[in-house]
Amino acid sequence: MRMRVLGTLLTAAAITAAGSVTPAQAAEGNVVGAGAPEAIAGQYLVTMKAPGGGISAQGVSTSSYRARMSAKQARRLAARSDVAFVEQNKRVHAETTTYRNPIWNLDRIDQHPVALSRTYTPTDDGSSVHAYVIDTGIRITHHEFAGRASYGYNAVSPSRPAADCNGHGTHVAGTIGGTSYGVAKQVKLVAIKVLDCDGEGDLADVINGVNWVTAHAQKPAVANLSLGGSNSPSLNAALQKLINKGVTVVVAAGNENVDAATESPANLAAAITVGATNSKDQRASFSNYGSRVDLFAPGVGIKSSFAGGDYSTAVADGTSMAAPHVAGAAALVLDATPGYSPVQVRNYLVAQATPGRISGLKGSPNRLLFSTAPPAAPVIRTSAISMTAGLAYSGQLALTAARRGAWSIASGSLPAGVTMNGNGLISGTPTGPGSDAVTVRFTDYVPTVATRTLTVSVDVTTPVIKTAALPSILRGMYYNQQLTADRAGVWTVAAGELPNGMSLATGGEISGVATTAGSSTFTVQLTDGWGQVARAELTIEVTARS
């Protein structure tokens, strides 16, 4: 079903049908973006005031509509007391400069110095987070996504899947969460298609896509918009509503080499606005700048997945390429701290950023994305395990600090009858005593590997005979009683004698016909499979018939 949060496409007559036109209503107001170069003739976005007048407390209108009308009708509508503002619909575009040839960018964001370490060590994998890519769609079958990408909503053609026929959205998604090129390598990617095959779209479709995410987002979540256009209060209001719902929003600063405050959504204060740098930590020549930019991230020569095929890649420049680095970093933060609000995520990334490295800033903050220091290598705390032969055992291997990863056996073996699963749970019933040395391995998400050799001891205990007394019997009657113990073994008579006519089987059964009256006291012995012995003194009374 098509989600039309902005309402149906209305005419000016339909909007004004609630009352007759009066001289007061014929007054004219200002239309936001009227006559702009990217304006779509005859189409407007009408945002109504909240009930009681004014904008709602969250700064988001209660209802908005896309309408067809003349410029004069739009000005008259803008003057109405129940209308917050009227904005001319316009074209928006993907913020990409050019695709070019590799991958330095991930190396740069996990360290403060400019000298690259030739490694990328993320702090988490983002597996609990959904990343909504509001763009040209995603080629979800690309091998970089390993089944983690899905279609969300297609605002351009609502009856069709949000497939990528341009490549821009797939490239952005690959930087957010590709297995090779991504910052958060296990994040769940959701395609929200708002731009067409040329990387172009209209404002109304972008807002529809944003509103779909507001209604359907699975949190913790981050949304990336590597697109932009001139200032738009309608788009900013829709994004503010998304942020108020708890979704972190990351946007590209733009590629016009101008102040980002002049463009939407780059000028939205509550979003994380990202400018682009090159491999020398210089602001990219095309990148927008200014106080509205929160962070810079690599945006020149960025290799990522592409929509040409399931193994296609491309190298691209643009703030479109910078923003998804930050979206991926936000996913890592949310994976580790899912309760963080968008403000907390932004503040954390700003606080962790590498300061004072970027040149050519033009009034921008000197903050380069840093995906936080790698965690310390995991340390296995468990050093020894003790079990008892013949008794069930279950125990969990432990680290000094919780970490996501998988356990395995590096060398040696566990006692017979005992196994270990990938979660580090050792369980089973050891079949015999002894001592084994086994080296266990823990591999975390980075991946960092920790190993430790454990001593696994299987001890034996003395059997416990549970039978404490035996019933009496009349002479000449058949007798049958089963001796019991805490384990199996071989039963024998160690001392004394059973009543005449009775015997003890090795399985512990005393049976027979007593032929002589009297009291017989004897000692039974149980020898278990490991040679451990238990004894018990028992008595059977045989009485004569009266």
UniProtKB/TrEMBL annotation:
Domain Peptidase S8/S53: 133-356
GO CC aspect terms: extracellular space
One term of GO molecular function: serine-type endopeptidase activity
One Pfam family this sequence matches: Peptidase_S8
Keyword annotations: Hydrolase, Protease, Serine protease, Signal
Record's keyword annotation contains Electron transport: no
Domain of life per record: Bacteria
Record: active site: D135, H168, S320
Gene Ontology biological process: carbohydrate metabolic process; proteolysis
Leader peptide range in chain numbering: 1-26
Family listed: Belongs to the peptidase S8 family.
Protein name from the UniProt record: Peptidase S8/S53 domain-containing protein
